[in-house]
Amino acid sequence: MSELPLPPAFRALGGSDIMVSPIAWGMWRLAENGRSAAEATRLVHAALDAGINFLDTADIYGFDGQGGFGDAEALLGEVLAADPALRSRMVLATKGGILPPLPYDQSADYLRTAIDNSLRRLKIDMVDLWQIHRPDILAHPQEVARVLDDAVSAGKIRSIGVSNFTVHQIAALDHFLSHKLVTTQPEISPLRITCFENGELDQAMMMGLTPMAWSPLGGGRLAAAETARDRLVAAALDAVAEAQGVSRSVAAYSWLMAHPAGIIPIIGSQQAERIAEGAQALKVRWTRQDWYAVLVAARGEQLP
């Protein structure tokens, strides 16, 4: 039975000339538990040494409901300040547009401030990818686009992306942008397959956007499958994982990567060994039969 193609070692980020690994490392828990700069440096090296050059953070990472806003960016900034050579080895992405205690704010003044503050915390002059974290329904996409285009022209950001946007919100913002979107970041996992069937991935392929999948392991639910559905999905992943000598997590990453949209799973672990292990996903082969077996388990019913 023919196998689906393996992902390339590196791929372009959307329509840009930025080359990224087909799997990323996310830092939403980087600043937890008083992690030191030395410990954070070890995690950055774990990703880079495994061939993962795409690192994703956000200004809200580190916020615990009361404080800590910007802590993950600031910690990474310490790492980069201590070893500036690391910056050239990575494609660095961050996000903004959430302003506690408000839900979301993409007014022009706040967006400009958010971008500048992220650069200051990260101790860099330009970020490779800046993403709107969640859509502000009260912001007109034309106003948002103007701020983002200006930031690209000013050399503060290289490229633009969105996270948790609907297909219509993506289309509206991209319509007003001169520097077109290159990424979209929805939640995608073998336990959350909405994107496969609601048009998000089809739109990404049509527009040339690179999908970045947050929570690709279902928020940890794949590791400890409890419901009947979760156990069926886990079993379908295990069939491939065991045959190819990898973990269930690696099989889950590779299942997403087999999709023709070029999904980039974001590893959420803050353990060096788990980050490095993720790179094994580049070598896992899927047949159509095995791939669809996971999808059928996730849907809970046979395909028509």
From TrEMBL:
Cellular component, GO annotation: cytosol
Domain NADP-dependent oxidoreductase: 22-291
Entry-linked InterPro entries: AKR (IPR020471), AKR_Detox_Biosynth (IPR050523), Aldo/ket_reductase_CS (IPR018170), NAD(P)_OxRdtase_dom_sf (IPR036812), NADP_OxRdtase_dom (IPR023210)
One GO molecular-function entry: oxidoreductase activity
Alphabetized Pfam families for the sequence: Aldo_ket_red
Official protein name in the record: Putative oxidoreductase
Native source organism of the sequence: Blastomonas natatoria
